[in-house]
């Protein structure tokens, strides 16, 4: 088997070398399997780095980075757990440098950090598991946005959408957090599988979910050939409010018209919901409170508005609670008890209560994580469009 | 502006901290803009690593890694170029560790390495530029695959597909290389923008492009809860042929029926094309030569089959060249003159010529790169379905 042995040296960066007589390429070293999810819910992480002095594993199910050990091939590994089934962001710290797992295609789309995803399945399929049920489709869609720019959307259409060509669907607009992208609810939140499962189980109504990018100012700058300035992604104080306004304008005047033109979308207010996580939750509250003629359903994940902003900008909402309560078919707020926004979120709820605004709330355990976001999506989307 | 200054310490891993009284989180350090494409086509790369001893930039437009220098904040940077406009994979080497650019969302989906993408626009928009033309949609689609597994496809539908609900379209099946994924032709190849532009310019027929994942054996193992074994992603000799057979079976018995059931796809052989890069090119040739009743158009990018395999497995193709030539509306082969598969690809062409099989070929400059793949797509898709 001389040819086969010879071939082992011919693997090249990102490509395949066919058998028989090809020009040699530098070897890529041994194949590494990582993460390996073991039947007992432990996870083995591996990273090839023969020359590294220290490699640690940093994962959202561990309080602090865990040392890994090196084998004779130079592969560092550690087995952790058993771990509670869920999807966890993780990365390697290689001599202090944070690195995604090169062997894992599952990753966290974000503008400021890179993490890989470890998916530990449950004995019973979890809310986000890819089950053998009818699957919806996730589409990357482009639209004409402000100042001549082209915006991008990720859109979930439910199972059957392509076939039932006379049916129209309600729409849930769903916004990611700061430095997340329009892909994050798909790639990390597994919004498609959560909805596929809820719909298959008869727990959620079939709906379209539209996921915009939350920072149109930065995108416009980029497309004008300007470097994306650092100050366009900073986010403080009054500035956050004015930027949320840009987002709201893009949503109301560009995104929604595009969706209602290109998808079979119901367009009455009771067929429109809006929700978001973190900064996207703030954008949600502002867009909804500023356009209550357009939205009847609000899902706020790990976010809030301050009483000061409510009183100066959304007096319409708090001054006539009976009208607000009649208009809002759902006002849902979820936050984790270890979330760094827990306290202001609870103050926001207390404030809304003091103003006699009705809401449903879920205080979960845990922090400002996508493990929690998935749980909030699974809890709140079944309540929509009822 | 005390509040604003205070807020600078509150930015948290992946999320946004709203103003006013939130629980403090560890700071993430200064915002880094990278890559910054400058008007003169130079590129500035930046990486934050105050404690690193040496950071280099490795890019496919440079022969070897380039040293970067550190500023007082701990941000390493280097400005390179001017660079010929195109999209180039790059990564940082931080004390010898290969790292994607954390500030850049553009990345190369691959099962074995992680690279970021730098997109240098042309003065005249390049073939893959996002121009202000009607845009198609890219969809992530799931299908019922072999052994009870669920396969995934990325599908491009052309501009107007959603609106012209009585129109049917030809389909181009397009397969990535080894360790690439079903996303690579979208995320790196920008197949959607290339086709949007060609269609807008009247150069290509509107078509559906279906991009499957090339390694169904590995996916099946994973979904059965088995760790993806290292030997399932090795690829040598006769083994490559038997694995291509599994792919072919999945394509013919699962993927195509799913597509023709769920999309408005023309289903005669003259409305079906197949193409692929590297390993995907080998899979293309085998699937096409084995199913010439199903495909009339072949695009082979940077790949080949050996004369030995042709003679043992595809005698039907070479023994009756007049029939083959009549059946093949297009047989297109592209390869780069620095491609490590250049020699066997040219031998393959010479062999086909010696057998009187007609083909069109493009020998480009450069290597086994996605810069070349994009060029091949732009050259060959206009020839389809004519």
Overview of the molecule:
Two copies of one chain form a homodimer. Chain A is α/β, with parallel strands linked by helices and 386 residues long. Chain A has three domains: 1-30, no CATH class; 32-119, Immunoglobulins (Immunoglobulin-like), CATH 2.60.40; 137-383, Alpha/Beta hydrolase fold, catalytic domain (Rossmann fold, 3-Layer(aba) Sandwich), CATH 3.40.50.1820. Helix content of chain A is 28%, strand content 23%. In chain A, strands 11-12-14-13-15-16-17-18 form an eight-stranded mixed β-sheet, sandwiched between helices. In chain A, helix 6 links the parallel strand 15 and strand 16. In chain A, helix 5 (237-262) packs across helix 6 (279-290). The N and C termini of chain A lie far apart (66 Å). The model of chain A is unreliable at 1-27 and 231-235 (pLDDT under 50). At the A-B interface, helix 1, strand 1, strand 8, strand 9 and strand 11 of A face helix 1, strand 1, strand 8, strand 9 and strand 11 of B. Strand 11 of chain A pairs antiparallel with strand 11 of chain B, so a sheet runs across the interface.
């Amino acid at each position: 088997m001389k040819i086969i042995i010879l071939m082992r040296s011919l693997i090249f960066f990102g490509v395949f070398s066919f058998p028989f007589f090809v020009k040699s390429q530098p070897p890529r070293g041994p194949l590494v399997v990582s993460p390996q999810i073991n039947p007992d819910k432990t996870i083995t992480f591996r990273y090839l780095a023969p020359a590294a002095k220290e490699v640690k594993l940093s994962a959202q199910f561990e309080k602090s980075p865990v040392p890994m050990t090196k084998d004779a091939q130079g592969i560092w590994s550690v087995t952790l757990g058993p771990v509670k089934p869920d999807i966890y962001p993780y990365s390697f710290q290689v001599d202090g440098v944070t690195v995604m797992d090169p062997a894992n295609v599952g990753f966290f789309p974000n503008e400021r950090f890179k993490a890989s995803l470890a998916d530990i399945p449950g004995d019973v399929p979890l809310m986000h598991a890819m089950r053998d049920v009818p699957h919806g489709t996730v589409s990357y869609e482009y639209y004409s946005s402000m100042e001549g720019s082209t915006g991008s959307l990720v859109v979930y259409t439910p199972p059957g959408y392509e076939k039932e060509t006379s049916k129209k669907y309600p729409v849930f607009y769903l916004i990611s957090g700061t430095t997340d992208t329009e892909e994050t609810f798909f790639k990390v939140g597994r919004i498609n599988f959560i909805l596929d499962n809820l719909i298959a189980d008869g727990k959620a109504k079939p709906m379209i979910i539209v996921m915009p990018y939350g920072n149109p100012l930065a995108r416009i700058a980029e497309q004008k050939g300007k470097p994306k300035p650092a100050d366009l992604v900073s986010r403080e104080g009054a500035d956050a409010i004015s930027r949320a306004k840009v987002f709201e304008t893009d949503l109301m005047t560009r995104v929604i018209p595009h969706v209602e033109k290109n998808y079979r979308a119901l367009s009455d207010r009771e067929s429109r919901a809006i929700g978001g996580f973190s900064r996207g939750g703030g954008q949600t509250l502002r867009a909804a409170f500023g356009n209550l003629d357009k939205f009847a359903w609000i899902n706020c994940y790990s976010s809030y508005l301050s009483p000061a902003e409510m009183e100066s900008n959304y007096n319409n909402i708090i001054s006539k609670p009976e009208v607000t309560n009649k208009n809002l078919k759902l006002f849902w707020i979820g936050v984790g008890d270890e979330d760094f926004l827990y306290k202001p979120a609870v103050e926001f709820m207390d404030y809304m209560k003091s103003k006699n605004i009705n809401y449903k709330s879920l205080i979960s355990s845990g922090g400002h994580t996508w493990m929690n976001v998935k749980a909030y999506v699974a809890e709140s989307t079944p309540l929509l469009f009822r």
